[in-house]
Structures are given as structure tokens and as C-alpha cells.
Amino acid sequence: DGGITQSPKYLFRKEGQNVTLSCEQNLNHDAMYWYRQDPGQGLRLIYYSQIVNDFQKGDIAEGYSVSREKKESFPLTVTSAQKNPTAFYLCASRPWTGPYEQYFGPGTRLTVT
Amino acid sequence: KNEVEQSPQNLTAQEGEFITINCSYSVGISALHWLQQHPGGGIVSLFMLSSGKKKHGRLIATINIQEKHSSLHITASHPRDSAVYICAVIHSNRDDKIIFGKGTRLHILP
To answer: Which chain A residue lies closest to B10 (C-alpha atoms)?
Structure first.
């Protein structure tokens, strides 16, 4: 079945460590997105990529980095520079042309202590 | 002021009740999403609409582009409908950027 996978579902890290969240899709979508969700807030865009080897900063990119070496994969690294990294992270994808509907992964809950 | 506002923020109702969740937005859009997020966190797209009305099972979504308002209705609500419902708009002038509302937490009591 086609879809988006994120792993792991729960992730725990010590403060000061970088951590990479995985996002893989087999929907053949061109565009991929990373969002952050905090309690009581709407989803906020961290980074997005419209095509392989290209990506753009979203609204809250500071302290994060991404890569897009393959169409199927868009990993997100939460660096030690991110001041408040504990959050729920969602990956999404959609075709770049045609319907705008985004497909979401199951999310990764990151806890940094 | 948020560009996408949802009301109510929280809603508790008895099983069987008719539910309405509202979404108002202040920007030009090309389309609007209604999304459902269950306690586990995963998000499912319920509807994407740019005009009129869509229906899927017990769910109905309407949009009024002139008034910049959309509603999501649930008929004959059931405890399994308990979730967070999120309105998201696709900005027509900002590289198709998606702007999300903060969500409405719905709890249906048996």
C-alpha cells in the first residue's frame, strides 16, 4: 500500500544531542514537508522540498536541517541549536502539480530532556 | 490575529447529536482542507474543497468563498468521531503555502 512512514513513533534524546527523524513515502510525490505541532497550536512549517536536491525554509527553520537526496526520503535533523525541540513532528507529501491535497505520516513524538 | 480561526476550540456532545465546527480565514485561498487527528497523532484528510459542498458518509463540508468561511458537520455523531478536527487553507498568493487552524477538540460521549 502507498503511504508515508515515519520512524520511530517515539524518540527520546538528551539535551545537546542532534537527532534525525525519518520520513519515507512511496506515493511518487514530488513535494515533501516537515511540520511541528505543539499543544494548543496549529501545525507550523519547518522545511519543505519541491524536488530532489532542493529545499526551502519554512516559518520555523532555525535549529533544524534537512536533505532531499532521493525523491522518497526527506529526513529532518533536530540540532542542538533548537532551543525547544520537544514536540510532535509530522511529515507530509503531495504531488507538485494537480490536486493540492497533502498526505500525512503518523508522526514522531520527540522528547528531549 | 491568526489567519485561520476555528470555533469552538473544544466541544463535548452526546452520541447522536449534530455537530458543527466552523472555520474562518482572512487570506485568499485556492482550496481548504478539513483534517482529522486521532489521539495517536496521525492526520487523515477528510475533505478538500474550493467551492460548494462535499459529503462523505456522515460528514459534510461546506465553504462560502465570499464570506471566507467553511463548516464541517457531523450527523448522528458517535464516540469514534472523537478527535481533533483541523481546518487548513491553501494560500493562493504565497507559493501554495498551507496555513493551519489550531484545531477543534471534539469529544462525543456514549
So the answer is: A40
